[in-house]
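Lab channel / #folding
Pinned by the channel admin:
"Please post every new chain as: sequence first, then the structure tokens as a reply. Keep commentary short and put observations after the output so the thread stays searchable."

First post following the new format, from NK:
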Amino acid sequence: MAANRWFIDSETGVLTDVLLCPPDYYEWIPSNDIAIQTMANGGSIDRTILHSQFDELVSTLKGADVSCHFLAPHKDMPYEVYTRDSSQTTPFGTVVTSLSRSERVGEEKEIRTFYAPDEIWRTCTAGRIEGGDIHIIRPGLLAVGVSGGRTDTKGAAEFISWFEEAGWTCRMIHFPEHFLHLDVIFCMVAEIWLSLRWTCWMRLIWSGSGRRAFAFCP
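Reply from TO:
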């Protein structure tokens, strides 16, 4: 795997490269409560605004000296833009995940087109797991969310096992399916600080007993 160029050991390190997909064919599909309600209420996508926002994102990343890489968009894969789901960068190399929804299964082919064969470290084959449920919090600490929808117990267990073999502390976090992904609930903003969807700040503590605790910090 000499050609593997991309690695990550935390969510708060320096970002140097990012994988994106232009939203040329983005459409809502009735896969979650928000999309279903939006479609039922007659919502529509403004393509001009959509592309303007994407271009602004790319410009901002490049302005911070981040190298942007792109998947080729496909008409039959409207959610290909969510590149954080279809593959996962790890400290050991790239992992091809196992997407849950039938509309997204075809994205694996594009991921394998982008990466050279020796740039792929592992492929998830047990159950389902998507990148939006994977949190490489800091070196040595991994959390994987399980809702039973996008990521199930089998998929999470397989992914966790690879990190445990390397001596990492790993936790499987169960949450209600309507949240979609664990990264919708929280994200890391510093090594021990996280931001929750309820717009409050909390400190993440993992005790020696393996129990997780969230301490409110004003």
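NK: The first strand starts at residue 17 and ends at 20.
TO: also worth noting, The two ends are 46 Å apart (CA to CA).
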